Predict the 3D structure of the following.
Amino acid sequence: MKLVRFGAKGAEKPGILDAQGRVRSLEGVVADWGGLFLADEWMAHVRTLDRERLPLVAAGTRLGACVANSPKFLCIGLNYADHAAETGATVPSEPVVFAKSTSAICGPNDEVEIPRGAQKTDWEVELGVVIGVRTRHVEERDALAHVAGYCVVNDLSEREYQLERTGQWTKGKSCDTFGPIGPWLVTRDEVPDPQQLGLWLEVDGVRRQTGNTRTMVFGVATLVSYLSRFMTLEPGDVISTGTPPGVGLGMKPPLYLHAGQVMRLWIDGLGEQCQLTVPAS
Ligand code: ZN
C-alpha cells in the first residue's frame, strides 16, 4: 500500500493511492498515519477495504509528510562508503547517529527555505524508514518486522552551521523545511529488500546523486537493531539512512543551493519529490 497525507499544512488527512495512483481519502477510517495506526493490525484492516469505493481526492491536492507527529527524526551519517570518501571522512566502525528536529519535517513537494544568511545549503537523497511499533533491543533478524514502511527523505543540510559553527551536526540539519518526507509511505510488504533500491537526485535538471542502497555500510535491519539498543523506537519515528555520493559539499569546488532552484528526488518504488528553493521568510 502507498499511504499518503493530503491537505493544507497542519491539517492533513490520511489517504491511500488506488490502483490508478489517485489519492483516496481514509478520513473516518484511521485518524492519521501516525502512532498506533502504523501497527500491522491497522494496516491489515485498511488492506481489506475496497479502495475504489473510498472518496476520491481532487488531483493536485497538496501532499504532506507521509507520517504524522513523528516522535523522533534520526539520521545516519556517512553510511555509504563512496559518500564518506567524497567528504574526506573515513568509514565509521559503528553507525554515526544524529538527530534532526521534527519541526524540520515538511511535505514532499513543499518549498524548501534557504535559511537567512546561509551560504552552504546542500541536498541529500535518502531512504527513510518509518517505525511501526515500539521497539527496544530488537535482534537484527527481527528488526524489519518493526518497520511500517519506507519513504523518500531529503536530508537538507547547511554545511556551515553543521561543520563550522562548533559542536555537533544538529544546527545544520534542523532548519524549517529541511526534512521533506514522502510522497508515500510504502508499506514494507511492497519493499521486499530495502537494500536493492536505486536512488537519485537532480538540481535544475542536472543529475547530482546516483546510488543504490546496496552500498550502505550498515543496512536497515542493522540500523533499527542498533538504534533500539540506545533508545526505545516509537511508532512514527523516522530514520533517514544516509546519502549516496554527489552532495554539493563533495564537489570540487563545492556547489550549494540558492533560492529559485528545483530539486527532484527519486527512489525506486517509493516515488518522487520535487522542491523549489525559496528565501526563508
Ligand atoms: Zn544525511
Observations:
- DSSP finds six helices and 18 strands in the chain.
- Residues 75, 124, 126, 155, 240, 242-243 surround zinc ion (CB under 6 Å).
- Residues 40-47 form the longest helix (8 residues).
- The mean pLDDT is 96.
